[in-house]
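Dear colleague,

Thank you for sharing your sequence with our group. We've completed the structure prediction you requested, and as agreed, I am returning the results in plain text so they can be pasted directly into your records. Please verify that the sequence below matches your submission; if there's any discrepancy, let me know and we will rerun it promptly.
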Amino acid sequence: MVGVPKLTPADAVAAVRNPLAFIADRWTPDPRTVRRAALAALVMSVVIVVTGGAVRLTGSGLGCPTWPECTAGSLTPTTALSYHSAIEFTNRMLTYVLCAAVGWAIIAARSEKPYRRSLTRLGWAQFWLVMSNAILGGVVVLVGLNPYTVAAHFLLATALITVAAVMWQRTREGDGEPRLLVGKAVQQLVWALVVVSLLLIAAGTVVTGAGPHPGDSGEVERIDVSWSGVAELHAVFAWIVVSLTFALWFFLKGVSAPQGPRDRVRDLFLILLGQGVIGYVQYFTHLPTVLVGLHMFGSCLVWIGVLRVLLSLRERAEVTADVPAQSYDAVSASIAGPK
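Please find the predicted structure tokens below.
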């Protein structure tokens, strides 16, 4: 049985001054562990969006009427508050689970050998996005669920999903220079798909801000536009995304593109089919809450699918060049913030 090394006073000081470097000096995670940590952060970034949608759809947005406390003088819901408070408070607590997942991704990336600065940067980018969105979430509560702040809250969550998805992809490839697998025409078509997908997501936030789910049972400000008109515009963007994906699949097949991009486009097309069915059913059934929640989950999957298509257009090999000899401490100094 391997004994646990004794912690000296010098070790304790080093752990306090630079805990990430201290852990990295004593632990080398398996590459699968790093990938799983990045995937856990991505999964939690989606979960927090879905639970945030549940808060809105159950009218629990002001279940905790203040922030950072749940109610004046109490961090947790009191017996005087309703079940809406429990729903809102649970969503707030899940932010800590998200922080733990992102923290695990940062520690795993920081401890991987050889050290990959690009992964650590992506992990810290997620951390700052989580912190920023937590503050913005507090602002959303304090301004009484103003629809524009709610839309910004969702878009910032989408940014978090973006960085988490990129980090997950980067854990499965090397740090070599990217080598394109497709021609310029395919690249332009995929970038058009990305842009229209962003417009689709943005239009979706306006539909939510003008629609019949304000997020609370009380009087809540709404975006002063025609809900049905914006929903139709949202549907137009959705059809453009589907058409671009369909055209892209045939184009890649016609030019005998590598299997990777073709598989990612196929996956995206299947996600879009499911999302489209849910979208039209919820529209014609007057937005039942369960279907709206599934549609929000689907929007996360659509965006991840689009990102995977974009990232599949290139490959990165492992870096094989010799690294100049230097102490690991020198490489990992001052890592208490994003690198």
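Summary note from our side: Residues 207 and 231 are 6 Å apart (CA to CA).

Kind regards,
the structure core
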